[in-house]
Fold this protein.
Amino acid sequence: MNRSLPPLTGRGELIQDAVQLVAAYPKTALTVDCVIFGFEENELKVLLIRSDLQAYKGLWTLLGDVVNESEDLNEAAYRVLRERTGLNDIFLEQVQSFSAPGRHPGGRVTTVAYYSLINVRHHKLRKLDNEVHWHNLESIEAMGFDHKDILDVCHQRLQRRVQEHPLGFNLLPDKFSLRELQNLYEAILDIKLDRRNFRKKFFSMDFLIDTEEYEVDVPHRPGKLYKFNFQKYQRNQKKWFGIDF
Amino acid sequence: MNRSLPPLTGRGELIQDAVQLVAAYPKTALTVDCVIFGFEENELKVLLIRSDLQAYKGLWTLLGDVVNESEDLNEAAYRVLRERTGLNDIFLEQVQSFSAPGRHPGGRVTTVAYYSLINVRHHKLRKLDNEVHWHNLESIEAMGFDHKDILDVCHQRLQRRVQEHPLGFNLLPDKFSLRELQNLYEAILDIKLDRRNFRKKFFSMDFLIDTEEYEVDVPHRPGKLYKFNFQKYQRNQKKWFGIDF
DNA sequence: TTATATTGTGTAAAAAATACACATTTTTGT
DNA sequence: ACAAAAATGTGTATTTTTTACACAATATAA
């Protein structure tokens, strides 16, 4: 940012004391809120906690926390994930900030929204947080604060990203069948896909590793299990063009 | 956001006094910074001002300002645009926030980055701001604060968006030739495009209005001038799918 | 053994993207 | 007046991508 506008003085007068300048600015509390997506039983899920504010009693909210004094935004978001899920190296993306003056009953609080994709099997919820639960994305209605808006914006971002990058794998177990993969895409995008074309598409991208293993305990012909070839994907980061309004 | 983590107490104890809660949070100053893109002489431009901080003497910075006490982020960003360019109803999009603890020499300042597209002919720079100038995007090197990073991120966002929505028209005069349009896309995306295919593409999208007028004062055969059919575009907001890593 | 459920597979048609060249129109310079 | 320069305007063939669509094979459950 730059100088506050009204006292524009033309040219030349440089501000010596930046600390004094910033001290005079209005201040806001700063938080991060994480939309943590998971996938289970062919449904897209979100991890929510009950609001601890009387004002939102009974309502669900996103997992978030205050950003500490000398902490960057990403650090804070990773910390929230780590503290809540025990998971460390996770996909995480900043989405956007929300700062409507009335969005928090306690005063001005600016929040930076993130979303994250985790494998619901790989984490253990913190014991004490017995109000932390996975929710079906579809079934979520009212939430505390403006968290429903944040959730919707993050879901839209996910829908978009998952078509540009193979992020979906973060939600799946290490080994997965193509049907699971397709169910995942259908759940995220909320559409039906053609099975043969879906397979063709993913095979042609050529970063599925055939494990030569098969599903077990399914009440029908078991499908082959694949792994995602992260290395190959990272080597071939696709160039990108095509006007497409 | 939700409760601060360390003193997790299990369940049940709702916070009555949200104001007291927020009062105890660390605070940050909050600003918006606008990357204002323009297009002139076939070059993508950005509007910059000289830093008014001694610490960044001589360096260029984005146009920004503090977010006022009861102002939302978008309001603040529109205000910056209005105050700097005199323009009111302009395309503007929030990109992301930057809050590294050391990013401002005066203490913690969180900034929310926006980008905006304006027609360089439609505005008059504020008289007093005689250090506000258009810069060739290509030629920008060091900047004050972390503004070069912000600029780069916003440019990437623009490159992406301009292929999903016909935003480019915001940078052009009301009437424009197809060559100007192509030059614009080539400047934004920093690539060469095939002239015939480019024309085909845009004609097939069918929101160019033929004005039956032609360029004047060009040292060669003049091209036809077109207008952009905003209404038609808004009616046909395209649905969207195609996995495309 | 049969019914059920799901996997695995290929081709044809349609749509979209790409590569590519020449005649036309205007201005500028002689 | 003419020639040179510069850019416009236009169409087709090829390749690539997307879409639509059906049946045999394999495993489990009854």
